[in-house]
Design a protein that fits this description.
Blueprint lengths: L1 H6 L17 E2 L3 E6 L2 E10 L3 E6 L8 E7 L6 E15 L2 E12 L7 H9 L1
């Protein structure tokens, strides 16, 4: 009820439905993460203008800022800056992996995200 009121008059708000602002695209790009000097290889699972879901072998704390490089197959690597917003531990074929939900906060140097838009357009 409060959410519907906040959205304005004559607006219907679904509770528990899709809340993402940007559509997700399934990808399998290689990603390099750099969190406080710790560099790790990851695999992207999905991508949007707002963020990225990656699978990684070691956990990274929620709230951690990081630099990442997305390496699309046959494309130009794209450097971005992100923040971990969620982590989920899961077992896969007898080993533990972590799915990290990353929110993009810009490109290195604080620029907007034109390189990200180009990366999405290439998919």
């Amino acid at each position: 009820l409060y959410r519907s009121k906040a959205d304005g008059k004559n607006r219907v708000t679904l509770v528990g439905g899709e809340r993402r602002r940007h559509p997700r695209i399934t990808v399998t790009h290689r990603v390099t993460l750099n969190a406080d000097g710790r560099v790790a290889a990851a695999r992207a699972k999905n991508l949007s203008e707002g963020g990225l879901l990656v699978s990684i072998q070691e956990p990274v704390a929620v709230g951690s800022p990081l630099d990442l490089t997305v390496r699309p197959r046959g494309g130009t690597p794209v450097g971005l800056r992100g923040e971990v917003v969620r982590i989920e531990r899961r077992g896969v074929e007898g080993r533990v992996l972590y799915d990290l939900g990353l929110r993009f906060v810009g490109e290195p140097g604080g620029k907007p995200l034109p390189l990200l838009r180009r990366l999405i357009a290439e998919v």
